[in-house]
Amino acid sequence: MQICKALNVKVPKVDEDITMDTEWAKANASLRRIWDHTPEGAAIIRRVLDAIADLRLPEADETDRPI
Fold first, then answer.
1. pLDDT (tens digit per residue) in 8-45
2. How many CB atoms lie under 10 A from the CB of residue 44?
3. Is there a domain that residue 67 lies in?
4. pLDDT at residue number 59
5. Domain count, the chain
6. In sequence order, what are the residues at sequence separation of 6 or more whose Cβ sits closer than 8 angstroms to the Cβ of residue 9?
7. Nearest by Cα to 31 from 18, 12, 44, 13
8. Could you tell me if residue 6 is inside a domain?
9. N or C: which end of the chain has fewer CB within 10 A?
10. Distance CA 2, CA 9 (A)
C-alpha cells in the first residue's frame, strides 16, 4: 500500500463498484476456470484463443473495438 501511495496509484476499495461488461465477465470467468495457474497452461489457452481468432471471418473481426 505504501508503494501505491508513493507512486500515486489509485487502489480500488473493496466496496467500490467496478463495472465490467457482462459477457466479458463471463468469458473471464470461463478462462479462469480452465486455467491451471501455470505459465504452460496460460500459453495453451493463448494458442487456442489465437487459433479461434484465426478462424473468424475478416468482416467479423473486432480488433479495433475497445475492451
1. 887 766 655 567 788 999 999 999 999 999 999 999 99
2. 14
3. no
4. 64
5. 1
6. 3
7. 44
8. no
9. C
10. 10
